[in-house]
Design a protein that fits this description.
Blueprint: E1 3-6, E2 8-11, E3 14-22, H1 39-62, H2 71-84, H3 86-89, H4 91-99, H5 103-119, H6 124-128, H7 130-145, H8 155-158, E4 161-165, H9 170-176, E5 183-186, H10 194-201, E6 206-208, H11 213-216, E7 222-226, E8 231-234, H12 238-258, E9 275-280, H13 286-291, E10 297-301, H14 315-328, E11 333-337, H15 352-356, H16 366-372, H17 374-387, E12 392-397, H18 403-423, E13 432-437, H19 440-444, H20 446-450, E14 455-458, H21 460-468, H22 486-502, E15 506-508, H23 519-524, E16 529-532, H24 534-545, H25 549-561, H26 565-576
Parallel strand pairs: 3-4, 4-5, 5-6, 9-10, 9-16, 10-11, 11-12, 12-13, 13-14, 14-15
Antiparallel strand pairs: 1-8, 2-6, 3-7, 7-8
The structure holds phosphoenolpyruvate and magnesium ion.
Length: 577
């Protein structure tokens, strides 16, 4: 049967491939009643899966890499102990016997009971151990569902696969960087969620907010992902497939043509230079930034180094990651944003933290979290400072709302410098410190921030989230995400204008900077520094090369002053004509 699902386009391009269903084992476990006669066999199946998970843990322990975090061994031991405990080794057997529950279901029921008990514990450290119970159980579930027996696809096979998931955390997405999948589609998620941002950085077609893809698509079905329109076509008929194949070839050829612009200086048609920087998530993204001709890294989201692990990266490990980027960029500026953990970038990698906080986007995220954990923050600041000796490193502070956050951070930077002096380690004594303007309060009270900072960068993703009160990760309100809302445009335009007048360098590093539809508008509003995913950079450069500032300024001001949404779109179309 062929059918079509509509979602939100995240990453443009078209891909054709086969569905590869990805799930968190917990979410999608089978639930059925077994026949009386099968009880003993089911218990035996459960016992075998428990033994197999134990063997897997033992083998992992034997093969721990020399550079693995020290905590890993203890963590593997803990999981073995959890699986040995009668609460998991025995209780599910009883449920299989008394309720005739299938093994997976019995195990999940017992796990949920244990998790509830953990949630009642007052000590926060012990309470968080429930995540270990969940992880240990997931390992057994994977054995039961046979997931681990699937052969790992080769790189060539991966390109033909399209990942279909209910949801993926930013941590999951970062793991996909090691793979070469053809595309991604998910049921939930907003277009500026970090999951979507990482998908975009992979430069492959992706769609979020499809609602029922995970339920309705079967493994191996042929899919077309139209990342331009946000459309997923399942089992297309031959005519549709032929049409999409030809569109795909056209898009590929256009991408190829853009490569010719790599060395062309970035400037408008009337000669104003425009700086183009790259946003990266991991040190290994730096070569891609260079390949796209970026003038530097405008945003390194360092929190991605902290995801998918249970310990914190130490000073040396962080230093090495930052040094690697600073060195790879060969003297070009590298803006290292300090840890922006929290909200959808939960640090324990499985979203648990976010689930326990009533309103995570407004909670202890980013700079707030860092200032609440000064030792952890100092460790990162020392690592960044040490890396500054190896390139042109700048420090960027996320989510500023209060001046005292800057003052406290500057004091910590002084302290970190002093600690490095005591250790005799070199660093750039003049390292610049900038701030993100991504909370309306900061945009509205800009002068007090400007006075204390060397540069500014507008984070439009959060600025839109907080101005319009829409959770950027929630597809239920994704239709209300609107960069053209007059309130958003006013905040962005005023910030660019005030910073420029005040002589403070200003960039945009949110997703608006990489949106072709908005390039001329931002140029017209005075923006001269854009930071975006490397995969977008050459297309944006091409647009800049074909823009005459003298022609777009007046029109951009009209968009800004206009309050009628239909008219705004009409004016934007004119601007982009
Ligand atoms: C932003 O908010 O626009 C931004 C660049 O930061 P992040 O997307 O990582 O929150
Ligand atoms: Mg942000």
């Amino acid at each position: 049967m062929n059918f079509v699902l509509h979602g939100h386009a995240v990453s443009s391009g078209i891909t054709v491939g086969y569905a590869h269903l990805v799930s968190t084992a917990r979410l999608e476990v089978a639930h059925y009643e077994i026949a009386e006669a099968d009880i003993e066999a089911e218990i035996e199946r459960f016992d075998r899966a428990m033994r197999s998970a134990q063997d897997e843990l033992a083998s992992l322990k034997q093969h721990i890499a020399a550079d693995a975090p020290a905590e890993l061994e203890a963590f593997l031991d803990l999981h073995r102990m959890i699986l040995d405990d009668s609460a998991l080794a025995q209780a599910p057997r009883e449920l299989i016997r008394s309720r005739r529950a299938n093994a997976e279901w019995a195990l999940v029921q017992q796990m949920e009971r244990l998790v509830e008990r953990f949630e009642e514990i007052e000590d926060p450290y012990l309470r968080e151990r429930k995540a270990d119970v969940q992880h240990a159980v997931e390992r057994v579930l994977k054995v039961l569902t046979g997931a681990q027996t699937l052969a790992e696809p080769t790189a060539a096979e991966e390109q033909k696969l399209i990942v279909v998931a209910h949801d993926l955390s930013p941590g999951d997405m970062i793991l996909f960087k090691r793979h070469r999948y053809g595309g991604f589609v998910t049921d939930v998620g907003g277009v500026t969620s970090h999951t979507a941002i990482v998908a975009r950085s992979l430069g492959i077609p992706a769609i979020v907010g499809l609602h029922h893809a995970r339920q309705t698509v079967a493994e191996g079905e042929l899919l077309i992902v139209d990342g331009v329109q946000g459309v997923l076509i399942v089992n297309p008929d031959p005519l549709v497939l032929a049409e999409y194949r030809s569109r795909q070839a056209e898009l590929k050829a256009a991408r190829q043509r853009l490569k010719r612009l790599k060395k062309t200086p970035s400037a408008t048609a009337d000669g104003t230079p425009i700086e183009l920087y790259a946003n990266i998530e991991l040190p290994q993204d730096a070569p891609e930034a260079l390949e796209a001709g970026a003038q530097g890294v405008g945003l390194f989201r360092t929190e991605f180094l902290f995801l998918n692990r249970r310990d914190l990266p130490g000073e040396d490990e962080q230093f090495e990651a930052y040094r690697q980027v600073a060195a790879a960029m060969k003297g070009r500026p590298v803006v290292l944003r300090t840890l922006d953990a929290g909200a959808d970038k939960a640090m324990n990698g499985d979203g648990e933290t976010a689930q326990n906080i009533p309103n995570p986007a407004m909670g202890l995220r980013a700079i707030r979290f860092c200032l609440a954990e000064p030792q952890m923050f100092l460790t990162q600041l020392r690592a960044i400072l040490r890396a500054s000796h190896y390139g042109r490193v700048r420090i960027l502070l996320p989510m500023l709302a209060h001046v005292h956050e800057i003052e406290q951070t500057l004091a910590l930077i002084r302290q970190a410098k002093q600690q490095l002096d005591e250790r005799g380690l070199p660093y750039d004594r003049e390292v610049q410190v900038g701030g993100m303007i991504e909370i309306p309060a900061a945009a509205l009270a800009l002068p007090i921030f400007m006075r204390r900072l060397d540069f500014l960068s507008i984070g439009t993703n959060d600025l839109i989230q907080y101005t319009l009160a829409i959770d950027r990760t929630d597809d239920a309100v994704a239709h209300l995400y609107d960069p053209l809302h007059p309130a958003v445009l006013t905040l962005v335009a005023n910030t660019i204008q005030s910073a420029t007048r005040g002589g403070v360098p200003i960039a945009v590093c949110g997703e608006m900077a990489g949106d072709l539809q908005l390039t001329r508008l931002l140029l017209g509003l005075g923006l001269r520094n854009f930071s975006m995913h490397p995969s977008q950079l050459l297309a944006i450069k091409e647009r800049i090369l074909h823009t005459t500032l003298g022609e777009v300024q007046a029109l951009a001001q009209r968009v800004l002053r206009n309050t009628d949404p239909a008219k705004t779109r009409e004016l934007l179309a004119k601007l982009n004509a």
